[in-house]
Structures are given as structure tokens and as C-alpha cells.
Prior knowledge:
mainly alpha; 0% strand; disordered C terminus; 14 helices
Amino acid sequence: MNPALAVYLTVALSVLNQIGLKGSKVLVALYALHFGAGPIAIGVLAATYASVPLLVAVYAGRVSDRAGVRPPMILGSFGMGLGLLIPLLHPALSSLYLAAAILGTSNIFFHVATHNLIGALGDKQARTKNFSTFSLGSSISGFLGPVLVGWQIDSAGYPSALAILAAIAFIPGTLLCVYGRFIPAHAVGKKEHAPGGVRELLANGPLRNTLITSGLILTGIDLFNFYMPIHGRSIGLTASFIGIVIGMQAAAAFIVRLALPRLAQRYTEKRVLTYCLLMAGLTYFLFPLLQQPVLLAAVSFILGLALGCGQPLSIILTYNHSPPGRAGEALGMRLTVNKLIQIIVPLAFGSMGAAFGVFPIFWSNAALLLAGGWLNTLYDRRHGPGSQSRTGRSGS
């Protein structure tokens, strides 16, 4: 099959899967508030999404390297559908915690496998374009998931929203069971693999720096999805408008990702990533200060411009810096670092949120993003802009 068509099919499957994931984060946060949960409980819930994946992310990457990408994609799809059915069948706060653990774990298997597949569908020159196309799909799901959930909650309630998300989440796995021939042979799995363990990956300076940066960016996206509903409810916004505010971030990400290949070519991936961190950090400071819905949507759009570039660039750099034959493992390590930061930040500042509201949560994340941008600037000065990609990396 034509590699370009295979990329589009992979993106379509990922959009369906990510609608289930991104919609679930808004739904779970609002449903938890419905059950009387406070900022501490929401923080634990956000950390639950990341806790189990933290332990299995590298393993999920090894599975996609050795067994191929199709089995973990099927597992991730069906697991997400089942996770969404749990609070539907047993509506309680405890069910949301169990669902969050299953959803986060299922997403890891699907997420790492699809990234590995996209990286394998072209050489280094085509990789930025392919990941940019893939990230456009992520923006679409990031908009549709929250907006769909918000509208469905207001019009038909939480059970209906859960049922719709579960049905959507089951589709990719079902299609892959029936038709998976679009996956090229060189992305199915390999019997020979580069030696080495996690320590060797972390000893790779450019890769290690990219992993930390990626964790800050994904944490910025996830904390916004969890704590924007709390802020929105506290100022009287409906679920529908909360979904629109969150969706504006994804809409902006879609727009900026159209220009991502040109930006990366002109300024280098690493430099654009640094600017994204600084811009996102400054924007995060504004959120708890705003109560006007239109201003919240506008600032959300600006945040989407920053984080929308950062996420695909971190994936591209992780793939480019990974040792030959270990791309999936490096991508899994990327998610391990992401999840570790996603656990630490909500738990560390959830108790502060109980006393002071969402201010310390938003501002602490702003400080982390700004610090990441500053450290990236120092790293570039010491090692030079040419260190942003590994010259020996070629297409899989």
C-alpha cells in the first residue's frame, strides 16, 4: 500500500481512539465533581490516568518493536472501550478511578504503537511531515472529544456520554481485526534488536533532554483538561461551554500544525520546541485570573498554538534520537517520563488547590514550562543547534 495512504488510515484510527481518551478526561473530571469530589480527589484521579502507564510504557514500546504494532493497537482500543463501560455499568466515584487506570494503560499500548508505525512509514526527510499529519488528527480528536462530551452531558446526561465514547473507542480495534493489511511488513516487528536497557537510553543526552521537555508539554495539556472543568464550574460555566473552551486549544493546535513542517525547516525542531515551552508557560499564568468565557476561550486558543507545536515535535525528536531498532522503546520511555511528571504535579498541588483553588495548579505548571524553555535555551547554547537530531538515524 502507498505509504501516504497508510499514514492517513493510521491517523483515522488514532482520531477515533483519541476521541475516547480526550473526551473521557473531561467527562471523568465533570462526573467526579457531580459525585462531590474536590481538588484533591481530582488530582488523584488525574494521577491515576498516569500511574499504571508509568510502569508499562517501556514494555509497551518493546511489544510494538518485537511483536509488531497491530496487537498493541487492538489491545489499546478494546481496553479503552471496556474502561469507559465501567462507570456506565456502576456509576460511582470509585468506578471513575478504576476506569482512569484502565483508560490510561490502554492508551499507552495504542499510543506507542501508532507513533512507532508513523515513524516507520517514511525516511527521516518524510518523518516530520508524517508526524505533522498525525498531529493534525490529534487536534481533531482534541476538539471533538471535549465538545461532544460537553454537549452530550448537558443534553442527555453522563451515561449517554459514556456510551457514545465507548462505542467510538471500540471501532479502531474492530477495524484492525478485520483489516490490518495496510500496515507495512517492515513495521510488523523484527527479530533482531539493538542491545541495551533503559539506562543506555537515559545516557543519551539529546534524547534525555527531549524526554523531559515532552513530559512538561504533555503535562500542560493534561492538567488543562482536568482543571479547566474545575475552574469553569467554579465560575458557573455549563459543560457545553467548558468543552468549547478546551476544544479551542485543539482547534489552535490544528491550525499551527499545518505550518509545522515549514517552521521546523526554518528554525529547527529544537528551537521551535523551546519557543513553545516559553509561550505556553506565559499563557498558563493567565487562566485562573480570567472569568469571562470569551477571554478564556481566547487564551485557550493561544495555549493551543504553543502546546500544539510542542507535542509532535517532541515525538519527532524522540524518534530521531532513538537507537536503531529501539524506536518503540524510546517512545515508551518518553511516555514514562510524561506519566511520572503527570503524577507528581497533580498530587503535589492538589492539596494546595483544596486551600487556594486552581491558582497554584495553573501557576506551578506555568513555572515548570518556563523552566523547561529556559533549560532548553541553556542546552542549545552549550551544545549548539545542530544537536537537535541524530544524523545517523534513518527511516525504519
